[in-house]
Amino acid sequence: xxxxxxxxxxxxxxxxxxxxxxxxxxxxxxxxxxxxxxxxxxxxxxxxxxxxxxxxxxxxxxxxxxxxxxxxxxxxxxxxxxxxxxxxxxxxxxxxxxxxxxxxxxxxxxxxxxxxxxxxxxxxxxxxxxxxxxxxxxxxxxxxxxxxxxxxxxxxxxxxxxxxxxxxxxxxxxxxxxxxxxxxxxxxxxxxxxxxxxxxxxxxxxxxxxxxxxxxxxxxxxxxxxxxxxxxxxxxxxxxxxxxxxxxxxxxxxxxxxxxxxxxxxxxxxx
Length: 271
What we know:
Gyrase A, domain 2, five-stranded antiparallel beta sheet, YgfZ/GCV_T_CS, 16 strands, YgfZ/GcvT, TrmE/GcvT-like, 4 helices, alpha+beta, Folate-binding protein YgfZ, transit peptide
């Protein structure tokens, strides 16, 4: 959890994040991320506007301390604080939230905030609070990760950072980036790709019996056409997200000899 708070917090987030922060009113959230100047994804996160002058970045994979330090370098003379909120803790349940719905969260920073992280067929509630009494359950955490992948939210390990543009990760499905707002790191690349219609690769979801290796090539027929970017275990085996050409041959797909069965991404996680 990273908090950006102060008179210039929203303007700073608008200038750095790839989605339109100024369009988010207090009490709502959306998916966003931080890019390199070449438009490659450094980190993905949920951005919640918890007050008119404060946003939270809920960061599932990137190291929050490192990300906060990197963001701090660009604060310059703006009046805001970039703080890693070690006093706040996240817990999740596989059930619909009692009050939150879609992009509207419920609660307060003092008492805890619940978010609707569900999609079609998958009910999930994320809660951020000062309480850390929820039991740690690695099996449920992996199930949560698998649900993210099935809904098209890529969980990027360090080896996949700064490798992909938002379009290559199909983040348009989640409404996670803007091509119309003002400048931000990588905006020129993202907008040019969008308006010139040059999106040639995107995410594909697979199921498989064995764990595929993140970063491994994906072969379609005899040609190596893509790469595994995220994996997670579920009850039936493994699920994986890979970046592949949008147009590709109709042929068997494998990665390091492991057969991959293509599945449709579930909708409903866009915010």
